[in-house]
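Subject: Polyamine aminopropyltransferase

B.,
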Amino acid sequence: MEMWFSEFHTPDVKHSIRVDRQLYSKQSDYQRIDIFETPEFGRVLTLDGNVMLTERDEFIYDEMITHVPMAVHRQAKDILVIGAGDGGVVRELTRYDRVERIDLVEMDPMVVEACRAYLPGNACRMDDRRVHIYFENALKFIRRCEDEYDLIIVDSSDPFGPSEGLFTREFYGNCFNALKEDGIMVNQQGSPFYAEDANAMQRSHKRIASTFPISRVYQAHIPTFAAGYWLFGFASKTYHPIDDLDAKAWNALNMRTRYYTTRLHVGAFYLPAFLEEMLREVEDR
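Prediction pasted inline below.
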């Protein structure tokens, strides 16, 4: 008998992946965690029935949320990562010699435990000496920080349920205060394609744009995410994501990537007309 994992992107749209076997399934204090082995996408991590990553396409997400800000802020060495208990963002950050500290705040220790056991390709750098893991509520953690980080990466799940508080005006204000005078915040902004996701993206962008003097949105194609079309937010106190990109310096690092390039970096900020209009709608209010 064939086994399939299905995720509803809307009540009328479902994405399904054939499963060879289920490797892990536990209910934590916060969510249900499952890891499946699949023939097309390798191992797949889901939380409460939603795909968080697959071995096949996780590099797209992790490279774009990490290397875009790192290529702009060339002095970034103190970094806060919120969520990302799978370790993919940490893995990418540890590739930079200049990084001195990575504080990872993950609400659910069972996510880290599961990924260490079943997704070692992501979790392989969690024991790097520069990584400090805090199992606590990110909203409480960030309130205690002021003028401390060069970069904050918010790698949360979608703005429903346990992660809802990471998309509020208060949270973005606390991130602003936690950043140094030239700090950058990058977050996942979801998909603009389906109505509920698009509305959540607009709410988030409006709050970020009212908090940071520079706020832009960029895009990537991620096959297993809703509509295969995903957005990230770039918010900064001083740096412009294109004007302040030093492509020559980043390329001199000779860092091998599978998705990110400095040419793609620039192109990712050029958005389709419908999305530009959606962002203008909330920026002008």
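The longest strand covers residues 179-190.

T.
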